[in-house]
Structure formats: C-alpha cells, structure tokens
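Re: weekly structure request thread

Next one in the queue (340 aa):
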Amino acid sequence: MPQSEITTLEQFIVDQQALHVNADGSLSRIFRAIELAAKIVNRDVRKAGLIDILGEDGSINPHGEDQQKLDVIANNVFISALSRTKEVSMIISEENEGVVYVEGCENEKYIVAIDPLDGSSNIDVNVSIGSIFSIYQRSNPENNPSIDDCLQNGDRQVAAGYVFYGSSTMLVYTTGQGVNGFTLDDALQEFCLSHPQIKTPSEGGIFSVNEGNYQDFPTGIQAYIDYCKDPDKPTKRPYKARYIGSMIADFHRNLLKGGIFMYPSTNKSPNGKLRLMYECNPMAFIAEQAGGLASTGSMRVMELDPTELHQRCPLYIGSKNMVQKAVDMLHQYESVLVNR
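Done, posted below.
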C-alpha cells in the first residue's frame, strides 16, 4: 500500500465514529486500550524465547488448566489497559473466575470479555496464538454493576475482534458494519488497514478439527468428516485437513480462504470445550459479519443465552455452506438414531 494511502486503526475508528451522531468517544478509548495492550503482548510474545516468560506459571486457571507465564502477563496487561480508560465497569476474562469490577467506574456502561491469550498450549513451540475480545453495554446501567449485566447473548455485542500474533501481527474487528483487518507496521508501531471489508467465501476447501477425538464425536460429525475426505471432483473434494490447535489461527485462515472450524461435543466434554462469552460469541459475530455462519449444532451461537461466565458450547464456524452442511448432517444422523 502506498505510504500516502495508509489508514491507521485510530484514524479508521475516528472516521467511523464521525458517521454516528451520538458517538461520545467511549468506544474509541476502549479500542485504543486494546490496541496498546496488543502491542505490549506482541512485544512479549516476540521475545518470549529470550527471557524467562516461557513455560508454566505454576498456577491453575478457573477451568483447571495450567496457566502459562504469558497467560498471566497478557491477562494483567489487558485488564490494566482497559481499567485505565475509565470507560469499562466490568471485565470478564478466561483467567479470572469471577467478574473483575473496575474501581471507580461503577457508573460506566461498557463490559469487556477477553481471552487474553488463545492457544496457550502452543506458546512454548512458537505456534501462532492470539487475543480475543468482545464488548457489550450493561443491560441495567441504572443499577450497581453485577454479573447479571454480563450474561447477555452474542446478539447484544457492540463490537468484537481478535489480535493474531503470527508471521505478522493483525487486529481484526467488527462493530456490526462489516469486518476489517489491520496489520501492525513494526517500524511505525501502528496497526494499518490491510484487509478492508473482509468477506469469507461461502464455499471453502479446508476443514479444521481435532480428528484425534473422532471416535468421541457425534455420528453426524463423523459422517461429515468422512464426507470432507471423500473424493468428488464436482465439489472439489477431498478438502484439505488443517488443524493448528489455536482456534484463532485456524479461524483466521479459514476466514480469509474459506473453510470450517469445528469443536464438537464429545463424551468427555458434552457441552463442548470452547467458552461462549469470550471465544465463541466474538468469533461468531465476526464470522456472520463476513458472510459466514456460526452454530452450536442446534442453534445460532449468538442466540444462546448464557447462564454462567465461563459457559461452554460446541462450535461449528466458517464458510456458510460448509457450516450448514455439517449441521444438516448432524441433525440427519441424530434423527436416524432417534428413529431406530
């Protein structure tokens, strides 16, 4: 992109804000905080092998998982940056069991849900990881902030996005007016518009799922995986199997190239493994805004009403036709089993 045509994330947000008469700049300040936190985490990720921030922290997160040192660092960075905006009353994080109430901001209207570092298991082997965020407005701003304000479905999201720490660092987000991607220019230390108005293909050639759990998947999903691998020239099958183990990395590739990411329910995890509030909902918002679909297998992800902060759900997300095919086969085989 020619230097004269560079649009930074901050300029883009200011331009978008100018289109809304009632905008007061609050959301812009939250985005600036997320941008700053992402730059700090990016710096630490890039030098992780040179200083003592690799490996386990020695603590356990609310899900019984070993926390990595970078998990803790990223969590502290995002919470600190968001708290300093004085625009956020509550923060939900994968790394905190309860709601983080921001002191002195009881009357502010925004809530931010974050997965500070998605793909933690890949940190020590230098595989792409990322940060996910989702922004809501409080449902009862007149009352004191409470967990009830946080338990909103994905259709109530004001904005959502992710930061992808890969061969380059990208920030992708939506406010319900399409999806735009910004790449970090290391020299300028600015996120610059690189992927305007992202549209995911309705058909794709990639399926992303942990096939090691194949025997534990629902019968319909086993059948869909077999379908993906079955040669058929008219539908350009077999599809490519690509699974990185960082949802954000698999999702990002499929968003741009076309494909489906699946994390079905299993016998071990009947409700799935991914968290609704700060993983599934924000990614579903982005997928739908880019022309794709996101389903739990039984309903739109963003229509699922949460009952707890760390609620889990199955996820089928990506290219519209691929997700619909997977869901149709899931229902078809469920019907067969019921009628036996």
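The mean pLDDT is 90. The two ends are 60 Å apart (CA to CA).
Next request, please.
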